[in-house]
Amino acid sequence: VAPLTKTAGVVSVLEFRVRFCETDLMGIVHHANYLPYFEMGRVEWLRERSVTYAAWAEQGLHLAVAEVSLRYKAPAKFDDLLALHTCLAEVRSHSLKFTYRLMRGEKLLNEGMTLLACVNNTGALTRLSSDMLQAFKM
Amino acid sequence: VAPLTKTAGVVSVLEFRVRFCETDLMGIVHHANYLPYFEMGRVEWLRERSVTYAAWAEQGLHLAVAEVSLRYKAPAKFDDLLALHTCLAEVRSHSLKFTYRLMRGEKLLNEGMTLLACVNNTGALTRLSSDMLQAFKM
Amino acid sequence: VAPLTKTAGVVSVLEFRVRFCETDLMGIVHHANYLPYFEMGRVEWLRERSVTYAAWAEQGLHLAVAEVSLRYKAPAKFDDLLALHTCLAEVRSHSLKFTYRLMRGEKLLNEGMTLLACVNNTGALTRLSSDMLQAFKM
Amino acid sequence: VAPLTKTAGVVSVLEFRVRFCETDLMGIVHHANYLPYFEMGRVEWLRERSVTYAAWAEQGLHLAVAEVSLRYKAPAKFDDLLALHTCLAEVRSHSLKFTYRLMRGEKLLNEGMTLLACVNNTGALTRLSSDMLQAFKM
Q1: Which one of C21, C52, C77 has the shortest CB-CB distance to A36?
Q2: Chains near B (3 or more Cβ pairs under 8 Å)
Q3: Which of D73, D72, D122, D67 lies closest to D98 in space, CA to CA?
Q4: In this complex, do C23 and B20 lie within 8 Å of one another by their Cβ atoms?
Q5: How far is residue B31's CA from residue B15's CA, in Å, rounded to a whole number?
Q6: What are C65-117's pLDDT values in tens digits?
Q7: CA nearest neighbour of B2 among B122, B119, B128, B113
Q8: Rounded-to-integer distance, Cα D113 and Cα D10, Å
Q9: What is chain B's alpha carbon radius of gyration, rounded to the nearest angstrom?
Q10: Which ipTM score applies to this complex?
């Protein structure tokens, strides 16, 4: 079993607005569009810790999504100002897990999890680099 | 607890090609794009049973996504010819569950589940209509 | 011919970052994704003038896109920090035209135009409301 | 001026259904989603002439979108069965132009144009390969 590093569970909060194109004919944000929000959340989580995901991508290291789950509680609407809480929940040798809570004010709209596997440009599973571990242990 | 109807677990298979715009800079289908595939799968599952989801939407009944989960095994690429296996796994009084297996030839690319809640135009939870139950029991 | 109101050509600038999911297998932003950027630009153009597009939508007035054109000069990439310059170029009785220039620093990435027609909830062409004219003449 | 090859203006027709996720809160297909349709149209135009766009992409040749324009006449809705007419309108040494007409039955929903420039993996403008010219002259 891959060794597990306890993280501080540090949370970052990202505020953003719902775009018109993200809604569907039910008048709410289409359920698939929350995954790009979560992705944006973890990119900003890293930026706050002085890491640009793009820099890793240029080095040929990617955090490929291996597993996702989401529970939808209430819909977001066009132009809503949302706050996404992104939390690094777990770090292993080749993977890590982020959890997410999407809020509109005090209201929880949905919550989810993504398990990310570290892969190289050919898609092969790779150990997290020391740069990555450094960033994730903060 | 909502009463559970055992279904025949009938599976429908939908073939389609990956669009260029569905890829990302890793050269593979972006992980969020599988949710629209699953959605397309259940729309076609219904059509094969002579139900058009659009007709229910016009009656003000929607199957809102309440929960999703996905496990990614291997990536799909641009122009891949894929076969999505959509299975009605469970029917309850106000909700139902579909499971999905996305294949490229013999290879399983990913598998997932969506829990759908029946809601009206205002988003309130509603019993599945008798039309719906009829369709889902086939 | 619909009467033409000369506008001050007021420009608003919106800064934002390219999302990972907006790229394609060429490693650049997929060309279709600039239209949502432009849409976001005009929503923010209005907000700066104390108008929320959502409020008009709730009143049953929409600015439907009747025509678009874009010239792509250079690609945007993942995580680029972009500045979108949105300009109200023309106001007529039932329509208006915005023009856009998307910049990365000093570099022009693309420029475009959208012609918007005022329509009601049934899609019928409607005169711009006095609220709208007020906003657009600022 | 780049030499112009007159084409037979051969048209291909692609039938497909509107996906749920392609609609917006106006209950119609979001205007940006027609560009992926057009892209799908030209991919299928090529396939009918025994060319897979993916094969060119693997050789490092891409047809980058340099310019687009669209005129929207009537909206498409969820689950509409549409027919996209894709026409190669012009071939030059480094670029080509496709035009599109999107129909629902006898009704024209919109029409557009894309100017495509041949570029290599680094994005530099390149002559159309002889393979490409062969395909486009059919």
Answers
A1: C21
A2: A, C, D
A3: D67
A4: no
A5: 19
A6: 999 999 999 999 999 999 999 999 999 999 999 999 999 999 999 999 999 99
A7: B128
A8: 15
A9: 16
A10: 0.90
